[in-house]
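Why this split exists: single-chain examples teach little about how molecules sit against one another. For that reason, every record in the complexes split bundles all components of an assembly together and asks for one structure covering all of them. Below is a record exactly as it appears in the raw files.
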Amino acid sequence: MSATVPLACKPGDYKSDTKPIWCPGCGDYHVLLSITRAFAALNLPPEQLAVVSGIGCSSRIPAYTSCYGFHGVHGRSLAVGAGLKVARPDMTVVVASGDGDGYSIGGNHFMHACRRNVDLTYIVMDNHIYGMTKGQPSPTTEPDFDTALSPGGTGLRPFNPLVIALASGANFIARAFSGHVNETAKIIVEAVHHPGFSFVEILSPCVTYRPDQRAWKDCVRSAPVEPTDDAARAARRLMTDDGFNLGVLYRGDRWPYQPRAAATVTDLAEFEKGFEI
Amino acid sequence: MTTGAMLLEAACAAGWNGLLTRSVGPQIRGGEAAALVRLAVEPVECLADHFDLLVGIDWMNAQRFEAEIPLHPGAIIVNDPAVGEPPAAMRAAAGRVIELPITALIKANPAWRANMIALGATAELLGLDSEVLHALISKRFSDKGESVVAASVAAIEAGAAAMAAEAGVAKLARAQKTDVRRWLITGNEATALGALRGGIRFAAAYPITPASEILEWLAPNLPKVGGALVQAEDELASINMIIGSSYGGVPSITATSGPGFSLMIEALGLATAAEVPIVVVNVMRGGPSTGIPTKSEQADLNIAVYGLHGDAPHIVVAPQSVPDCLLTTQWATHLAESLQTAAIVLSDQFVGQAQVAVSRPADVAFIGQRLKATQFEEPYKRYALGGNGVSPMAIPGTRGGQYTADGLTHTERGTPTSGGRDHLAQLDKRRDKLDLHDYGGLWATLEGEGEIAVLTWGSLTGAVREAIARAARDGVKVRLIAPRLLMPVRPAEMAAALEGVTRLLVVEQTHSAQFHRYLRAHYTLPANTSVFHRPGPLPMRPGEIHRQIMQGAAS
C-alpha cells in the first residue's frame, strides 16, 4: 500500500467522538489530524490498528481515535506496544508518547525498543516541557529555561532523541512538525510501512507553557539532504543539525524482531516426558 | 551438585521418594556448594530435622553450612583424609567418621572424578543398587563417549568397594518400585508447566534469582505451542509487555522475585484498573532489598496483598508444595482470565528450586477462559456494569469493539472521568467480580480434625503436615488449615474451617508475623492463638513445629 492508493476510508473514520482535553492551539490537535490522515492513507480498518500510550498530554491520543487504544502508566508505552505486537503480529501498532513520558521516565525502554526493533511506529510529540503537570523541565528543555521546579533553568544539556535512537538501533528516524499536517501524515505512513522500529519525533508546540514555541513554524525547514541508509552519515547529520530539519533522516534495513512460533504445535503431554523417572 | 542430583534420580528410579535442595556460596561459579538430599519410602515434602550422612569431597568453607546441615547424633561423616578434617562443630555433632581415600584413588586412576567416587560410596552406604546408578551413568554421560562412561562406572564401583567393609551402617528401608507414573521436577518447572496447561502463550522475562528457571523453561517451550517469550530490559518492561500481549487476547505471564516484584507494583494496579488479565509469579526470597537471593522467606505477603496503591482488588494464591506449583499456577491463570484481573502466585525459593519425586499430578480442567465480546451494541461498553461484574472484553482485531483500555478512572465505555459516581461504580464492579466468584474447595487445604489447629500457608504446609503427623503419633489430633487463596479473603469458609477450634497455632516464615497480622485483619481467630514465626534463611523444620504443637497441647 502507499499513500497514492484511492482512499476507502476517510480521516474522520479514525476519529472518536471524545473531546480532547488539550489547550486551544496545542500542537497535538494537528498531530491527531496527521495520524487520522495517515490511517486513512494506510487504508486499514480501525480494528486492525492499535494506538498505545503512557501518561501526559500527548498520551491522551488513543481515546481520540476510533482504533483499539491503550492508555497505560507513565513511561511504559513502548513495553505495552511491544508485548501487543509480538503477541499479535497481525495488528498495526502505533505507540504515542511525549518528551517526558518517552525520554525521561521511559528513557530506558526507548533505547531497548530501538535495539529490539519490533515492527511498530513510535510517535513522540516533543514540546520540551511537562504540560500536564503544569510546566516542569523535560529532558529536551533548554538549559536556561526558567520554571518553578528549575529556577534559572536546569543548566543541563538537552537530550538528543534522534541521536540516541540511531545509536540504539532504530530502523527508521524522522522529524516532523505538527503544523505541517500533510507532510507529517506522509511521514507516519512511511514509518508504518517501514519494517522494524520506526521513530517519528514531532515538534508539537505547547502554547500554554512554551508560548515561545509559536516561533517554531518559522524555524522548521525540510532537511536539505535525502534520507540515508548509512548510519555514520545519519549520525553526522543528526549531531550537527539544529533540531529543525524535517523529513525522513535515516532508513535502516534490519530485520524486525518477531519470535517465530513452531510450525506444528506440540502436545502438552510431550513436555511431561522430560520429568518422567 | 551433579552428585546430589544423580543420587536423587537414582534413588527415585529405585522406588524411593526424595527431595533435593542446594546451598551455594556467593561465588558466581565454583566455590563451596552443598546438595541436601532427603530420601524416604513415603512421599517427602520438606527437609528432615537432621541429616544422617554427610559426604565431604572437600571442606573448604564448609563451616558456612553448619547451621544448614544439622547432623543427627548418630550421623556418619565420610571424609577424604587427604583434604583435611570436617569442621569441628560438624565432627562433634556426628556419630562417626568413615574414611574414603578419594584423592589417593584419583592419583592412581586419573580418569576418575571425585564426585563419582563419592556417589558410589553414598549409594553403598544407603543400600542403593549399583545397576540403577550404572543405567543413570549411561543415560547422562553417553554423549561424552564410552571412556567417560567406563571411568565413571569404575569410580562409582571403587567408591562403593571402599565402603563395603563398613559394618553397622543402617541402610535405608527398602523401597518398592511402583507402576505409578512419577516425575522428578522442581517447583519452578512445575510452575511453568502449570502456566502452559492453564493456557499461557506469552511471557516476558527479566532474569532474577530464584525465579529464572521458570522463564528459562518457558523460553524454548512456548514457541513449541505457538507462543513466544521476550526478554525485557527490566521488570517494568516485562510486566507492561504482558499487559500489552494480554490486551491483545493472549494469556500472559511473567515471573520474578522480591526486587523485581517491587518494580511491577504500579503496573499490577494498571492491570486491575484496565481489567487486563495477567499472571505474575513471585518466587519469594529473603528480603528486604536485595536480601538473600538464594534463600526462602515468606515476607512478600504484605506487598502482594497490600502493595498496590488505591483500592485494587486482585488475586493472590500460594502453592503449598512442589507439585502444587503446577496446580496453583494453572488455577491462577484460570482465575486471572475468568475475572480479568491480575493474579499473583506467591511461590518461594524452597518450593521453586527444590527438586522432588512426585506422582504425576492429576490433570485439572482449569483453562483460561476469558469472556470475550463479539457482538456490539452502539457504543460498546468495555467496562459495562451489572451481572457478576465481569464485562465482555473486545479483543483487538474484532470489528466494532474498539475501545481504549485505561488506568484512569473511567466510565463504562472507558472514557476517562473524575466523577464520583463512575469511580464508585467501577470500584464496586472490580470488587464484586472477585468477591462473587465461586473459588470452590481449592481456596484452602483442610486436613484432620480436633480442637487444635495449625494455620499456615505456602511452602511451610509440608513441614506443618509432617509435624501434625508426628503429633498424631503422640496421640494429639491437630487440624491443618492452609489457605491457597490469600486474596480475596474467604471469611465464611475460614469461619467454617475454624469451627470448634479452641487453640490455634499460626506458623509462618517472616520476621514480623505478617501472616498472623493478615489473619487478624480479615478473619476471626480463636482467643487462644499463638504464633510461631521467624525469618529465613534456614528452612522451618517439622521438629520445631511439632515442639510448638506439643508445648501448647501440654499447657
